[in-house]
Amino acid sequence: MTFYPEQLKPKLLINRYQSAEPDWWHTKIESNVYWGGEIAAAILTHYLKPQMATIYIKQSPAELVLKNRLKKAPQGDIEILTLFWGFEDNRHPIVPPLLIYADLIASGQMRNIETAKQLYEQEIVGLIDETYY
Question: Using one digit for the tens of pLDDT, what is the confidence trace for 4-15?
Fold first, then answer.
């Protein structure tokens, strides 16, 4: 898990953006776009109020950026990354729970770490049980 935020995630980063509208992400998301991090955790746990948007996308983000009027911003609160896994997950529009967990832990913020613990108990422990037992 420690290699993800330091080695893989920086290679996946397409760019960072900022939106003029704070709740822009409540709009319908395209089928090739998946929420990660805080937004995905909020969808699953109903506990976290997202401040950072992490998006994983299959192709160029040009349409998403244009449609939502996102502006490039090196310190922006929207990060768009390349979708990198090759298996299907029936939870669209969110990424697999383990990746949400990794995004939350990688942030280093206590509110996200607290939510990651909830997510672990709610979603990941069950996956481990199903896989190994």
Answer: 888 999 999 999
Report the half-sphere exposure of 34 (CA within 13 A, side-chain side). 22
**Cβ–Cβ < 8 Å for 96, 85:** yes
**C-alpha to C-alpha distance for 88 and 92, rounded to whole angstroms:** 9
Tokens at residue 37, please? Answer: 């991090």
Tens of pLDDT, residue by residue over 106-124, are 999 999 999 999 999 998 9
The answer to whether 43 and 96 have CB atoms below 8 angstroms apart is no
Single pTM value for the model: 0.88
Domain ranges of the chain: 3-19+30-132
What Rg, from alpha-carbon coordinates, does the chain have?
14
User: Residue 67: enclosing H or E segment and its boundaries?
Assistant: helix 62-67
- For residues 105 and 108, what is the distance between their CA atoms, to the nearest angstrom? 6
Report the distance separating Cα 97 and Cα 116, nearest Å: 10
